[in-house]
Amino acid sequence: MSNRVVVTGMGTVSPVGIGLKDYWAALEAGESGIDRVTNFDAAELDSKVGGEVKDFNAQDYMSRKDAKRMDKFAQFAVAAAKIAVEDSDLKIDDSNAEDVGVLVGSGIGGMETFENQTKRLIERGPGRISPFFIPKMISNMAAGQVSIQLGAKGPNATTVSACASATHAIGDAFDIIRRGDAEVMVTGGSEAAITELSYAGFCAMKALSTRNDEPTRASRPFDEERDGFVMGEGSGILVLESLDSALERGAKIYGEVVGYGMSGDAYHVTAPDPEADGAARSMQMAIDNSGLDLEDINYINAHGTSTPQNDKLETKAIKDVFGDLAYDVAVSSTKSMTGHLLGAAGGIEAIASLLAIEKGVVPPTINYENEDSECDLDYVPNEARELEVKAVLSNSLGFGGHNATLIFAEYQQ
């Protein structure tokens, strides 16, 4: 018999707020965290807008010495993890350290470190490269540093599957607890890729929005005038726990993880399958895995990137899976407010999904102004909606054809 898995703590570092209170208040109010990029000079690039984390001080969460030895993506992960563990009221010590694991995804890893050290190599030669270059840059260091900072000695790994990274991490952590290899998993995703090289690369692909004169209106999922995604940064971390462990220590329970699905498009390195088959199979696997009926799921937190292809094909996948019921399900994209956090997106969106269950409110898709005939579902346009949310399906779809889906449900004894 497999263990039931619940969520007992959550932490966010996001463009719309640090910590659950500020994060949820912004989502519920439909407030955008997107503005002109300040991390670097974007004057020569086509896209000049992004969702940057504001007012973040790493030393609020770690020592100055430790902060200097981490790339920003790892700093974000440690901060979000400490917020989540505090929220969970989880104490990690010698008595349980080996039963607490860490699984944190990142699509890109230490891009800022990589870029800065490359410049140093070119300008000053190989002898001036930092000895911390590799341990700051490699993608597993979010999970590694979270483990070190928390003293968590259980299963430890990293998922790198582009924009599906955090969702794969949470799903894999769910499976680890279900099969009894850990009692608790600290899991989610982290990303800090708002750098000149990242932007130049995505601009070369024509993937980013160029609505530079209206930053807060640039991310507009499912809107007919969407012209690309807006990059965000930050981290979303959850504490997953076996139900027995949570009940034994009297932990608060936000909801239960009940389903996980994943698939591959086997189609193209960046373009989604035009039949949306992979996304549909990922959703169907999660639903089958959950034991829920389609009617039980009344909110979908969409991948909803604000790119022309993703939004219409995710819509198609939802209709392929839900049939006529697709028109009765609330669907929204919180990327309209946060931007797209790449490998961390599934982390903050899982948290939005669970808060929707707790609060009885579905966050909106802002900037939805022009209907697209190929995007014809209920996208909760522009204003949050009160709704008794029983179960949420959350999608993440990544370059390389990686699809991942999680289903969270209201906890019932």
Automatic annotation (TrEMBL):
Q: Where is the Ketosynthase family 3 (KS3) domain?
A: 2-410
Where's the active site on this chain?
Answer: C163 (for beta-ketoacyl synthase activity)
Named in its record, the pathway it takes part in is: Lipid metabolism; fatty acid biosynthesis
Database matches in SUPFAM superfamilies:
Thiolase-like (SSF53901)
User: What PROSITE patterns does this protein's entry cite?
Assistant: KS3_1 (PS00606), KS3_2 (PS52004)
- Its signal peptide is none
The Gene Ontology terms for molecular function here are: 3-oxoacyl-[acyl-carrier-protein] synthase activity
- Write down the chemical reaction(s) this protein catalyses: a fatty acyl-[ACP] + malonyl-[ACP] + H(+) = a 3-oxoacyl-[ACP] + holo-[ACP] + CO2; (9Z)-hexadecenoyl-[ACP] + malonyl-[ACP] + H(+) = 3-oxo-(11Z)-octadecenoyl-[ACP] + holo-[ACP] + CO2
Top-level taxonomic group:
Bacteria
Q: What is its EC number?
A: 2.3.1.179
Which of UniProt's keywords are assigned here?
A: Acyltransferase, Fatty acid biosynthesis, Fatty acid metabolism, Lipid biosynthesis, Lipid metabolism, Transferase
SMART domains, alphabetized: PKS_KS (SM00825)
Any single GO BP term: fatty acid biosynthetic process
Q: What class of enzyme is it?
A: transferase
GO CC annotations, alphabetized: cytosol
Q: Which CDD domains match?
A: KAS_I_II (cd00834)
Presence of the UniProt keyword Transferase in the record = yes
Function of the protein = Involved in the type II fatty acid elongation cycle. Catalyzes the elongation of a wide range of acyl-ACP by the addition of two carbons from malonyl-ACP to an acyl acceptor. Can efficiently catalyze the conversion of palmitoleoyl-ACP (cis-hexadec-9-enoyl-ACP) to cis-vaccenoyl-ACP (cis-octadec-11-enoyl-ACP), an essential step in the thermal regulation of fatty acid composition.
Of which family is this protein a member?
A: Belongs to the thiolase-like superfamily. Beta-ketoacyl-ACP synthases family.
Annotated protein name in UniProt: 3-oxoacyl-[acyl-carrier-protein] synthase 2
